[in-house]
Structures are given as C-alpha cells and as structure tokens.
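To whoever is on call:

I kicked off a structure prediction for a single chain this morning and the downstream step that reads the tokens threw a length-mismatch warning. I double-checked the sequence; it's 203 residues and nothing unusual in it as far as I can see. Pasting both halves so you can look.
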Amino acid sequence: MIVIIDYGMGNLRSVLKAFTRLGIKAMISSDIEEIKSAKKLVLPGVGHFRNGMNNLVKMNILDILGYKILVEKTPILGICLGMQLFSKFSDEGNVKGLGWIDSRVIRLEIDDNNKWKIPHMGWNSISKINKSQIITGKIENSSFYFVHSYHVVCQNKTDIISTTNYNIDFTSIIEKDNIYGVQFHPEKSYAPGLQIIKNFSLI
C-alpha cells in the first residue's frame, strides 16, 4: 500500500485522486502503524516550512519517517513543500528540515517585480540534467504546474534531476537513492504529472 502522509499541510485529496485515476491503491493516513507498514510513502504539502516540521513533530511522525526512509529504504515522493522538507535547513522560518538531502531552502530571487511574481504560480517546463527513475523520455519536455515562493539548493549536483527557469534556474526534481522529490504538483499537471506518479508507483 502507498500511504500519503497526513500531517496537516493540505492538498491530500488531490494527490489521492491522482493515484485512484491510475488504478493504484493508496490511502491518506497519519496513523503510525499504517505508515510503518507502507510499501511506499508520499509527503505532499502546501504552506510554511516551519509549520510543516512542527506538525511532523507534534504528530509523532518524525521518528517513524526517519526509520522508514533511512533504515528500511522505503521509497518516498515529496511534493512541493514535501520535497523542501527533505532539506537540512530552510530560510523560511530559519528551521532545520529532515536532513535527508544536503540542501538548503531559500526564497526565489526576482530581478524585475513587474515581470516575475512571487509566488511562482503556473506552468513551466523542466530541463533534465541527470538520469531518473521517475522521468521518462515521453515527459522530459513537458510542462508542470508550480505554486511556490522558495526553492531547494542542492550541494551535490548528482541529486538534481531537473531544473526550471523562473528568472533563475532552480531545482525542480531531486532524486537520491530511495528519495524522490518534485517542486511542482504532479497531481495538477494532467498526463505528464500522472506519468510521474505512475513511474514512482512502479519503482
């Protein structure tokens, strides 16, 4: 079973609906035992980084997550804020993250406020720079739906699968061992997004 982790940061139903459309069994849960028995995990999220980390702590999800990902090597897909939480630290709230990826979350840099708006909201393409298990040839040149004000800066370039340009080039997909993350919302990105979800489910 794929478990979509409910830690109070929204957008859960849309993610579940995407799995359902693909005929893939998934469930939303914050139950420790259900998370513990999951074959794969999804960490979605919309909102503030500090709130996300605080919720994981308050709901006692932090320890089981660490065990599942770092010890059992359970595949996990982070979506938007979920991907950012994989980082060591975020400038949004000046707080430590999960620390699974050697990266820092910083605010998007904008040179022209008339041309570039924060949050970055809308459709953008990705530029693949490394091999990936979740990005196939059919969707490498597709566009995906973004809503974010911060982005992940990776120290190890091998963790970066793709970048996207919005005034600057920022990391839009990461992948390290059993850890996968997308800055955009695949559940809102039509066929290309559904393909990413399907690819993750087949890992």
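Update from on-call: the warning came from a stale cache, not from the record. Cleared it. Sanity check on the structure: The first strand starts at residue 2 and ends at 5.
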